[in-house]
Every structure is written in C-alpha cells, then in structure tokens.
Amino acid sequence: MKKILLAIIVTVLAGCASVVKVEGDQIVNNRLKITVAEAWNKVSVPGTSQPFDSWTQEGLSLDHLRFWA
Questions:
Q1: Which residue spans within the chain are E strands per DSSP?
Q2: Suppose 66 and one of 40, 46, 52, 55 were both cysteines; which one would form an S-S bond, judging by CB atoms 3.0 to 4.6 Å apart?
Q3: Residues 49-68, mean pLDDT to the nearest whole number
Q4: What sign has the CA pseudo-torsion 34, 67, 20, 57?
C-alpha cells in the first residue's frame, strides 16, 4: 500500500514541474553566464529551492545537465 501511495505522489509531483525553453546567453543563479548554441529546456519544480539548474533537450531520462553555481 505504501509503494502505491508513493508512486501516486511522485506522479502528481512530476506533473507539476515547469519547463521553460532557454536559448542564447543565460545567467545561472546570478553567478554563471552560459552561451547556448541550441535550444534547451530548463526544468524546475515549483516550491523547491535547489542549488542547481536542471536542463534537458530530450527529457530528463535521456539527457540531464545540471549547472551548480
């Protein structure tokens, strides 16, 4: 029963993640400037404070890039 409840919670939270397309020059955490040659997607979960930015092009399970700044 606990595993089913956990799976439901994870699924609901994954659906709440926001995805924003990023291109060109980007500033990460007001510390790091990145020049992006191709479009990437910045993924973040609302209501959380993470010390990194998560980016992907094809989905988090295929490619996942984290910038710690």
A1: 18-28, 32-44, 52-56, 65-68
A2: 52
A3: 87
A4: positive
Residue 62, Cα to own-chain centre: how many angstroms? 13
- For residues 52-63, give the mean pLDDT: 87
The two tokens of residue 67 are 């910038």
Concatenating the DSSP letter of every residue in 47-61 gives: T---SEEEEESS-TT
How far apart, in whole angstroms, are the C-alpha atoms of residue 51 and residue 32? 13
Specify burial of residue 55 (Cβ count, 10 A radius: 0-12, 13-18, 19+). Answer: buried
Give, as one character, the DSSP assignment of residue 64. Answer: -
